[in-house]
């Protein structure tokens, strides 16, 4: 009996061993999408080629907005105070469906040139709506635009691209929390809300790119991450911390 069982057992061990090593080998070039990206619940698809995570999105907010057509179930007849306490003043644009393709590095790396963020999408938030930078136009401050932020602090561009320059209030107050992961910038580094460990993030702990290195719930081994704050530059400071991927729409 033993003579039969022992070789059988060793066979199991052998096969278990070889199975593990083949799993490890495939991890290095894995096309499995890491769980953290699955938090982007608004994406229409998320895939990986092992180097880049490709996130597709139609860019439509999943929350009420004054910029949806009145016939849309998500149309919001909003008035009153919006971001910064300003009285809401609607801009002439309306929300249009887009076909965003965000390609962000799966293994984000510090860059030496810290390229300036472009006008237009600079990252993607959990609901698939893009983040925009702190400018209304080339080096023009947002000052005149914030009055047009809707109930959840987003608004559409003349192109119909709905976007967030500041804290995406629907995410931080309805879907997740003010200390949660809210999305990623194009360089692959994650974006977190205005709070950390139950307290407002101290801006002096952020570098000129508007982030710092530390442990987060999603990255227990520590990672560079951006924080959104209530004052300019809101999401990103003086360019990307890492080498940016691409976005098309
Ligand atoms: Zn804008
Ligand atoms: Zn932090």
Ligand roster = zinc ion
Broad shape: globular
Whole-number radius of gyration? 22 Å
Q: Can you tell me the residue ranges where pLDDT is under 50 for at least 5 consecutive residues? A: 1-27
User: Helix/strand-derived class?
Assistant: alpha+beta
Order of helices and strands: HEEEEEEEEEHEEEEEEE
The first-to-last residue Cα distance is 67 Å
Number of beta strands: 16
Mean pLDDT: 91
Percent of residues in helices comes to: 10-25%
* Annotation field: number of helices: 2
Strand order in space, largest sheet: 5-4-10-11-15-14
Portion in beta strands? 15-25%
Largest sheet: 6 strands, mixed
Features:
alpha+beta; six-stranded mixed beta sheet; four-stranded antiparallel beta sheet; 2 helices; 14% helix; globular; disordered N terminus
Task: List the topology elements.
Blueprint: H1 2-28, E1 45-48, E2 52-57, E3 100-105, E4 123-125, E5 130-131, E6 135-137, E7 140-141, E8 155-156, E9 162-163, H2 169-175, E10 181-185, E11 190-192, E12 195-196, E13 199-200, E14 211-214, E15 223-227, E16 246-248
Parallel strand pairs: 11-15
Antiparallel strand pairs: 1-2, 2-3, 3-16, 4-5, 4-10, 6-7, 8-9, 10-11, 12-13, 14-15
The structure holds zinc ion (2 copies).
One zinc ion is lined by residues 132, 145, 155, 157, 163, 165.
């Amino acid at each position: 009996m033993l003579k039969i069982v022992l070789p059988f057992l060793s066979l199991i061990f052998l096969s278990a061993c070889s199975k593990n090593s083949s799993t490890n080998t495939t991890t290095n070039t894995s096309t499995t999408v890491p769980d953290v990206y699955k938090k982007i619940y608004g994406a229409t698809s998320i895939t990986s080629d092992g180097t880049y995570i490709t996130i597709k999105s139609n860019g439509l907010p999943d929350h009420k907005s004054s910029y949806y057509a009145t016939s849309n179930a998500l149309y919001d007849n909003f008035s009153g105070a919006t971001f910064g306490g300003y009285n809401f003043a609607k801009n002439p644009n309306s929300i249009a469906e887009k076909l965003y393709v965000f390609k962000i590095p799966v293994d984000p790396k510090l860059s030496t040139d810290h390229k300036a963020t472009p006008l237009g999408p600079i990252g993607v938030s959990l609901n698939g709506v893009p983040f925009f930078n702190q400018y209304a136009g080339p080096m023009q401050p947002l000052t005149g635009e914030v009055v047009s932020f809707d109930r959840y602090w987003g608004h559409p561009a003349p192109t119909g691209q709905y976007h967030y320059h500041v804290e995406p209030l629907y995410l931080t107050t309805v879907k997740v929390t003010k200390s949660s992961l809210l999305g990623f910038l194009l360089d692959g580094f994650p974006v977190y809300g205005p709070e950390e460990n139950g307290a407002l993030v101290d801006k002096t702990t952020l570098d000129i790119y508007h982030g710092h290195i530390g442990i987060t719930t999603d990255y227990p081994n520590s990672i560079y991450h951006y924080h959104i704050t209530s004052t300019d530059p809101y999401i990103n400071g003086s360019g990307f911390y890492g080498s940016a991927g691409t976005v098309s729409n």
